[in-house]
Write a structure and sequence with these properties.
The complex is a heterodimer of chains A (about 400) and B (about 110).
Chain A: H1 8-68, E1 83-87, E2 93-96, E3 110-113, E4 116-122, E5 132-138, H2 144-205, H3 213-241, E6 249-253, H4 254-271, E7 275-280, E8 285-289, H5 290-307, E9 313-319, E10 322-326, H6 334-338, H7 357-367, E11 371-377, E12 381-387
Parallel strand pairs in A: 7-9
Antiparallel strand pairs in A: 1-2, 1-5, 3-4, 4-5, 6-8, 9-10, 10-12, 11-12
Helix pairs in contact in A: 1-2, 2-3, 3-4, 3-5, 4-5, 5-7
Chain B: H1 2-25, H2 34-45, H3 48-60, H4 71-77, H5 87-101
Helix pairs in contact in B: 1-5, 2-3, 3-5
The chains are: A alpha+beta (about 400), B mainly alpha (about 110).
Chain lengths: ~400, ~110
Amino acid sequence: MLGTNLYSGEKKSIIYVLGLYLSSTILLIATFFTSYYYYEREQFVHDEKEILKKYTLELEEKLSVLNESSDERLLYPRFDNFKSAIYDIDKHLIFSTIENIDIKNFKQNFFTKDANSYLISSLTPYYLGAAYIVIQKKSKDVDILNNLIYIAIITVIITVITSFFLVNIVLRPLRENIKLLDSFIKDTTHELNTPITAILTNIETIDSSSCDEKTLRKLDRIKIASASISNLYQDLVYLLLNHKTSLQNIDLNLSQILIERIEYFTYMANMKKIGFIMNIKSDVHFTADRKNMERLIDNILSNAIKYSNKSTVINIVLKDSLLSIEDEGKGMSKEELDKVFTRYLRFDKTQGGFGIGYSIIKSIIDEHNMKIDIESKKNRGTKVTLTW
Amino acid sequence: MVKILAILVLFSTIISASEFEKNCLTCHGGDFKFHIIMNKYTLKYSSEKRIKKAIFEYLKEPSIEKTILPFEYIKRFGLKEKSTLDDKTLRDMVDIYYDKFNLQSKLY
């Protein structure tokens, strides 16, 4: 999870920015193409109309000549490049060279149907009684939409590729900073290992019976302090090695582990006069990695103690598929709750830590398919409930 | 049955034709340009219904406003006299005139 990878918060921002950029670009392209499509269509209609008008004039001329004829039979004018029909003022068909002609709306002067373009024009005077002339010709073959779709697809692909390059360029400094921070923490962690081990083993070997009360209290404080450092160390190790070590999922007695972890934190809790109210069902079993479970419980517990007010209680409930830890501490506002899983984010700078606790919690519960529910009220306390 | 019908149609056509001769051709015989009049009506009124209506109304009550003839012509020969035929006969005569001279049926 560390290394050069980006965290979920940053990924979300990238997706937002990318989405915004892509959608605005696509919207722009769509607007441009739509306008272009309508412009081309308008152009097509204009060109077709011009040709059809010319044909109408040709026919009109022939009809006027025919109208003057005194012949017994009148040959209706026929043309190679278009067909025509004439209607009287009451819209009855007089004559047509167009097959299956069926005009209903004489107001619509231009339309296309089945790859043919039609123009209806009014005529005065009514040569041969014709008040309307309909001209039909094969439509000019232009596939505006198809061409546009190809161009649109290519443009969108280019935009997507460019946006990825852009994101990469923009993110490079950010990534380098994260890399720097991660490697700093990594180096520090390595350096912490030896002194912590030395302190802890030495404290364990001190014979407490030979110490007076004052020294014992000091020893307790050293124990708590080194336990805190040890915890932090474990957290950092988890973050650094989490995905590099394989999990050993075994059947765990969760009740037992929980009691052990509570005992481990008793020193720390006692310092703030915090009591534990425990409602722990015995022999609750869960298959998981032991170290991960300890990390999970440690993080929730240490958070609860860290942010609890003095002389309060922490409620711990363990049931078959539920673990809840409730404190009477500072609590969090809604905005803080929304960002609680963001790594390196700390709401209360007066407390120690790197702001990685909830990030670890989230990572572990995700790994073990658990669900987390955090209820919190400012100055009232926080209740963390895990279910599985 | 078909034969009887055919005879009836033929008979009524002959009667109509002779009626037309009696009612129209007695005056407008000889070189009267029936087709020119039809051309002018067609140019102005377009459809069968409107042409027939215009001819009927003119014959019933001839006036300068209703005539399709040029003003010079009217000035020289004057307006036609009102038709003395009853409405039905006049309509029948207009129908025969239209059937004989209309331009649309000449088209092929």
